[in-house]
């Protein structure tokens, strides 16, 4: 049950207010920790060539980095639940900065893997997951806009970082550049501090106009039906005589329904009045039971019951055959109430260790086949996205363009990316299309634009295709994580996002180096980029098959229902 204030009103996400400050904080975290990734080839390119590891080495380092980021999802859900998204984000910011700072004296692949990939990867994973969970707590209706704006920080970094890395390498070489970038990463601490606990900023839910109108109509209807009854709190006490129950005049079914309707309608009016009255009605027959019917207005804690119609069985003097028939005809869910309560009261010591782990980490999400297909699609797409960011600088260098040209290409790609992230989220929030559908549509155009890029060699053609690619990249990424929050409840979101990260890590570890091997074996960058497009289309095909299966299944069930 959600949080309520002292007056019993439900508290909901602010959808603004301090939430926009939290968005700025997330932008700072993303700018400080993730913007360097597209410039990895510029920053580490000469270093890796001196080590003699070329494209395969870069692919291994980046795959290890992203695998670490995503495998940190195993710990993110439990850590956020035990502590808070703010504390986990602060730890992530520190680890991310230390990972860069300790990389500056690196002279081997093992050193870079242990500091930049593992330590830095853990930091980025903790910070990224925590900020995403925080924004989902702060926003409900404007969640898409908040996520899109927060990702602008990453895009701004992607636009500025190539130029900054180029200047740093010219002035301070590899070691000095890495130290300075480590200092920049420490700014994520400031952004993490802005992620205040959501309970400080919750606001009462505003009733909808339609609900207010319905409430007024029901109140008028009640006053017309029962002017003698007070509208605040009604207790109907039914006590049968101690003699033969059959001698009592049983109330008709129609009259019973009318009375319950009046009492229930009175509870609607009671929400605006806090007086109380007790009315005893002795002519009713509830099959020999002594009952009370309460309608009252109060907080959720009052009498342990929410406001509305409540029936309490105080005792039974006798039991009629009618009552036995009613019990036999009760739905299974009602019959099993006692069984459910007994199961809930079972001592935790009787629960196996594995069930405790499943409950603590919400691993029951893995029983959801649709969720598993979402994980597959997002993971296979992310492998292609990661390798594309890594391969583009090498692709441009192979075509004979200088580092300055490459930095300018990447910056212009980031500009169109920012444009998509700033313009599209408000539109996506207003259209009545699922986030996963929007993501799949943008993915198709993204794959086509990348395959077109692979066949270009001229400066102008490369610039145009890279700008188009950047726009569609932004269009896909604004809905990338929202496909998870759209499918799962807010309570399950930390675990769902953590499992999503683990799935990405598994796919990156399995398929990431394979893309680099394709390039080194074939010697063709275009073939490598086309293979990434194939991965993107695999995501779309998997989701399309799921759509057809679920639609066919629902149609069959509907036909069976109509026939019966």
Short description:
This protein is about 70% helix and about 5% strand.
What is the topology?
Elements: E1 11-12, H1 18-33, H2 40-51, H3 54-71, H4 73-82, H5 85-101, H6 109-138, H7 143-185, H8 188-193, E2 203-204, H9 209-225, E3 234-238, H10 253-270, E4 277-280, E5 289-296, E6 308-316, H11 321-328, H12 332-335, H13 337-344, H14 353-361, H15 369-398, H16 403-430, H17 435-454, H18 459-480, H19 482-487, H20 493-522, H21 525-563
Parallel strand pairs: 3-4
Antiparallel strand pairs: 1-2, 3-5, 5-6
Helix pairs in contact: 1-6, 1-7, 2-3, 2-7, 2-15, 3-6, 3-15, 3-20, 4-5, 4-20, 5-6, 5-7, 7-16, 9-10, 15-20, 15-21, 16-18, 17-18, 17-21, 20-21
Task: Explain this structure.
- The chain crosses the membrane at residues 12-31, 51-76, 88-106, 118-139, 146-165, 177-195, 369-386, 406-424, 436-453, 459-482, 494-517, 529-549.
- There is one protein chain.
- The protein is mostly helical.
- The chain folds into two domains: 11-205 and 368-544, Up-down Bundle (Growth Hormone, Chain: A), CATH 1.20.1250.20; 209-314, no CATH class.
- The protein is built from 21 helices and six strands.
- The chain has a four-stranded mixed sheet. It has a two-stranded antiparallel sheet with strand order 1-2.
- Helix 2 packs across helix 3 (54-71) and helix 15 packs parallel to helix 20.
């Amino acid at each position: 049950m959600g949080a309520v204030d002292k007056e019993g009103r439900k508290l909901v996400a602010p959808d603004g207010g301090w939430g926009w400050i939290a968005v700025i904080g997330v932008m700072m975290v993303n700018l400080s920790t993730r913007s360097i990734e597209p410039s990895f080839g510029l920053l580490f390119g000469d270093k890796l060539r001196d080590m003699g590891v070329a494209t395969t080495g870069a692919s291994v380092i980046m795959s290890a980095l992203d695998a670490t980021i995503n495998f940190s999802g195993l710990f993110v859900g439990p850590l956020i639940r035990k502590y808070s998204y703010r504390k986990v984000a602060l730890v992530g910011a520190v680890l991310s900065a230390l990972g860069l700072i300790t990389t500056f004296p690196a002279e081997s692949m093992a050193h870079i893997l242990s500091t930049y990939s593992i330590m830095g990867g853990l930091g980025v994973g903790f910070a990224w997951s925590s900020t995403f969970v925080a924004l989902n707590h702060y926003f409900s209706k404007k969640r898409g806009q908040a996520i899109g704006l927060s990702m602008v920080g990453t895009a701004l970094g992607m636009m500025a970082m190539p130029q900054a890395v180029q200047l740093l390498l010219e002035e301070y070489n590899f070691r000095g550049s890495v130290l300075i970038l480590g200092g920049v990463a420490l700014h994520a601490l400031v952004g993490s501090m802005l992620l205040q606990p959501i309970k400080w900023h919750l606001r009462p839910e505003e009733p909808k106009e339609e609900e207010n109108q319905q409430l007024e109509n029901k109140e008028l209807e009640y006053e017309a039906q029962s002017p003698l009854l007070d509208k605040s709190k009604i207790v109907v006490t039914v006590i049968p005589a101690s003699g033969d129950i059959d001698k009592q005049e049983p109330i008709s079914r129609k009259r019973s329904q009318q009375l319950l309707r009046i009492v229930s309608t009175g509870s609607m009016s009671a929400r605006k009045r806090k007086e109380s009255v007790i009315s005893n009605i002795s002519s009713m027959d509830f099959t020999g039971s002594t009952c009370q019917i309460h309608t009252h207005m109060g907080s959720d804690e009052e009498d342990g019951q929410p406001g509305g119609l409540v029936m309490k069985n105080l005792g039974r003097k006798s039991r009629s055959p009618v009552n036995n028939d009613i019990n036999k005809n009760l739905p299974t869910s009602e019959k099993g109430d006692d069984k459910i309560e007994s199961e809930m009261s079972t001592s935790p010591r009787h629960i196996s260790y594995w069930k405790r782990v499943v409950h603590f980490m919400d691993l029951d999400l893995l029983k959801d086949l649709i969720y598993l297909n979402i994980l597959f699609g997002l993971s296979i797409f992310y492998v292609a996205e990661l390798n594309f960011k890594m391969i583009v600088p090498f692709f441009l260098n192979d075509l004979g363009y200088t580092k300055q040209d490459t930095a300018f290409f990447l910056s212009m790609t980031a500009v169109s990316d920012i444009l998509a992230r700033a313009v599209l989220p408000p539109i996506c929030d207003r259209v009545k299309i699922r986030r996963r559908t929007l993501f799949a549509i943008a993915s198709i155009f993204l794959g086509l634009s990348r395959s077109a890029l692979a066949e270009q060699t001229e400066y102008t053609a490369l610039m145009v295709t890279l700008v188009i690619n950047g726009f569609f990249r932004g269009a896909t990424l604004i809905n990338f994580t929202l496909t998870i929050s759209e499918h799962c409840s807010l309570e399950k979101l930390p675990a769902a996002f953590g499992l999503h990260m683990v799935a990405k890590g598994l796919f990156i570890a399995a398929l990431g180096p394979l893309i680099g091997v394709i390039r080194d074996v074939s010697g063709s960058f275009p073939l490598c980029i086309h293979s990434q497009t194939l991965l993107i289309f695999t995501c779309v095909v998997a989701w399309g098959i799921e759509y057809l299966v679920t639609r066919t299944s629902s149609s069959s069930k509907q036909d069976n229902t109509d026939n019966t």
